[in-house]
Specification:
The chain is α+β, with helices and mostly antiparallel strands. It is built from nine helices and ten strands. The strands form three sheets. The protein has a five-stranded antiparallel beta sheet, covered by helices on one side.
Length: about 300
């Protein structure tokens, strides 16, 4: 039996195409209804029901922000009750990651500014009042990620620069605010349409935490376009970037890079090679961690 066949509205589907892109555990399908409307179907094991229900509610609550993004339409059980599904609006366009380099440097920067403004809107949605203090949450995350890195069996050249910086700057986590987080905010989870409008997809890693932690994937965006990555920072802070931001950015990027290798090992040699390359490029961009600001960042863009 097809895992989505027992969804009540499936009889109105004219075409179903599996979407292979991404690393999520969820099965994804592009659904074309008999009316011609297109939707996105995501399916995951039933054990994730509580989180998927939270995701549905949170993304529904974000509608007033007026962002072009994947919006939930319907959720329920399928696959004879063994799976939970969610239907989302479909964002028609192309992957920003592949399309952006075709644009002028000025356009890349301007789209980065737009991405920064969108991220700021997301962060206007506050975390629940009973949220555990960020310092405690993130220090636990650091401990787990370093343990996983040291246990993975591969030691990357220059890793001590990362580890030393992390050890020496945990105090930056004190008294940080918390908000809604997309959870994986980078160019690979963005769409561009023929009007060059920017859309945001793949919220399945949503969480609550320090809003500035969302910049920890900025290295992936900078790999595609340093103008876009710079613009994202400028757009978020409206051109007035606090000095403390770059100290925390360096910490969050360091932690993310240390955790990237154990993560990539689960997906194969190609992903391991990519993460090793980004690890070394990040190290170089910080001058072996002697610089607070990465060298791809531009104070001004013409």
């Amino acid at each position: 039996m097809t895992i989505y066949r027992d969804i009540l509205g499936a009889r109105k589907w004219k075409k179903v195409e599996e979407v292979k892109k991404g690393w999520s555990q969820e099965k994804k399908f592009k659904i074309t209804l008999d009316t011609g409307e297109i939707q996105l179907l995501r399916i995951v094991d039933r054990e994730h029901t509580e989180r998927k229900q939270r995701e549905f509610k949170l993304l529904s609550d974000l509608k007033p922000l007026n962002i072009w993004m994947s919006t939930p339409l319907e959720t329920g059980f399928c696959n004879e009750g063994k799976s939970v599904y969610t239907l989302f609006t479909w964002l028609e366009g192309q992957d920003a990651e592949s399309l952006l380099p075709q644009y002028s440097l000025k356009e890349q920067y301007e789209l980065g500014i737009e991405a920064g403004k969108i991220l700021k809107k997301f962060h206007s949605f506050s975390a629940p009042e009973d949220q555990i203090p960020w310092e405690r949450v993130y220090n636990g995350k650091i401990d787990r990620k370093i343990k996983a890195y040291k246990a993975c069996g591969i030691a990357l050249e220059g890793d001590q620069y990362y580890l030393n910086y992390i050890a020496e700057h945990r105090d930056l986590l004190k008294n940080r605010p918390q908000s809604f987080q997309h959870g994986d905010y980078h160019i690979g989870n963005m769409i561009l349409n023929d009007k060059k409008e920017l859309g945001i997809i793949d919220f399945n890693r949503f969480s609550f935490g320090d809003p500035w932690e969302e910049f920890n994937r900025l290295t992936f965006s900078a790999e595609v376009s340093t103008e876009f990555a710079t613009g994202l920072i400028h757009g978020y802070f409206n051109g007035e970037v606090p000095n403390k931001f770059f100290e925390l950015l360096k910490l969050y990027i360091a932690v993310n890079q240390i955790s990237a290798l154990p993560w990539a090992l689960e997906y194969g040699a190609a992903d391991v090679k990519i993460m090793k390359s980004i690890f070394q490029k990040t190290l170089a961009s910080y001058g072996n961690f002697t610089q607070t600001v990465p060298n791809w960042y531009k104070t001004k863009v013409n």
